[in-house]
Amino acid sequence: MVTSHDVARLAGVSQPTVSRALRDSPKVSVLTRQRVREAATALGYVPSDTGRALSVGRTHRVGLLVTDLANQFYTHTIAPMHHALESLGYQLVLLTEEGDSDRVADRLLSTSLDGALLATTATDSLLPVRLRDRGLPFVYFNRRATTIEADSVEVEARSGMRELTERILDLGHTRVGAVLGPVNASTASNRELVLRERLALRGLELPDELAHRGDFDFETGFSGARRLLELDEPPTVIVCANDVVAYGAFNAARSLGRDVPGEVSIVGFDDLPETRWPLLQITTVAFDLEAMARRGAQLLVDRMRAGADEPYRHEWFPSHLVERATLGPVPVR
Predict the structure, then answer these.
(1) Percent of the chain beyond pLDDT 70?
(2) Is 332 contained in some domain?
(3) What three-state secondary structure class fits 314?
(4) What is the pLDDT of residues 177-225, one digit of tens each?
(5) 66 & 213 share domain
(6) What are the backbone angles phi and psi of residue 311, rounded to the nearest 5°?
(7) Quick check: is 52 in a domain?
């Protein structure tokens, strides 16, 4: 196996000069850099990322930490985040959050990352505390914990949820059901809060019998919607915690032979690309997910370069209603 020492011998320089030349260090003359590169090419030498990381104390690798790899939200997040980081000279490493906070922190640190984007952080998670204690820079993406402050990029859900709820009520719906997200997810609690507030302003409420709570997944949407639709007095509209939950609710309605939106309306949140499919055409709340992913990457790189003393930044992406085929007027029964 060819090493940098072989390149040094062929180029007639020292091994440290080879390392500096291949990093385009200004401390090495242009002619020497050219000679080293020609020697490296002749020998088929490829610099080791690990070796370079050890020499400079950085790996230029950052982690994206999620809990559910099957969730389409993260599928559509990875590509723009990867491209943004690549343009800034970093590689994206995808990691799953399994185990307690200490174990996850150990795994992040053992992977030799320069920083991390925390995408599925629970409000009561201790992981951010563990990472701060161990000096690993991180940014909250989409969700945040209340345990410790850090840079964050999130959706401003109030405007979109307000539009959605007002439209539902203007269409005559008074028996509103919901398939809600986890109580310890900031995204779920923010959306639920606005829904309940807007209902209350019209003298309505979301009773326990019309609410189902679970994870942000298809199975929660399917089981929750089936339970609501099999009530003696089912809701005329089901507000879902996100689009993936709405996919499950849509399929549950179809499995029971219920027409959407003729017998029940179904709405989501996120405006994932699949919601635009002609087969689905789901009414939802939209925001610029790709821009948010790119901005999260930039915030993390900024934090890694600035250090811990700079003030934390919190950025919010506006949301708005996108009305499609799954929301209609209250059915006549």
Answers:
(1) 95
(2) no
(3) strand
(4) 999 999 999 999 999 999 999 999 999 999 999 999 999 999 999 999 9
(5) no
(6) -60, 150
(7) no
Span between the terminal Cα atoms of the chain, in Å? 77
Residue 33 is part of a domain; what is its CATH number?
1.10.260.40
Give the pair of three-digit tokens for residue 37.
Answer: 């590169």
Question: Do 77 and 188 share a structural domain?
Answer: no
Domain membership flag for residue 136 = yes
Q: How far apart are CA 189 and CA 191, in angstroms?
A: 6
User: Which range is least confidently modeled, 86-95, 237-246, 247-256, 277-286?
Assistant: 86-95
Radius of gyration of the chain (CA): 25
Cα dist from 170 to 123, 167, 198, whole Å: 34, 5, 12
Domain of 10? Answer: 4-47
Say what the pTM is.
Answer: 0.82
Give the DSSP letter string of 185-246.
-HHHHHHHHHHHHHHHHTT----GGGEEE--SSHHHHHHHHHHHHTSSS--SEEEESSHHHH
d(CA 82, CA 91): 7
CATH number, domain at 238? Answer: 3.40.50.2300
Q: Can you give the pLDDT at residue 134? A: 87
Q: 328 in a domain, yes or no?
A: no
Looking at the fold, whether 133 and 26 belong to one and the same domain comes out as no
- Cα–Cα nearest to 146, from 128, 119, 162: 128
Number of domains in the chain: 3
Q: Count other Cβ atoms within 10 Å, centred on residue 307.
A: 8
Q: Are 243 and 212 in contact (CB under 8 A)?
A: no
Task: Name the average pLDDT for the chain.
Answer: 91
125-165: pLDDT as tens digits: 899 999 998 899 999 999 999 989 999 999 999 999 999 99
For residue 270, give the nearest of 288, 294, 258 by alpha carbon.
Answer: 288
Claim to verify: residue 151 and residue 179 sit in the same structural domain: no
Q: Which residue has the tokens 């840079």?
A: 151
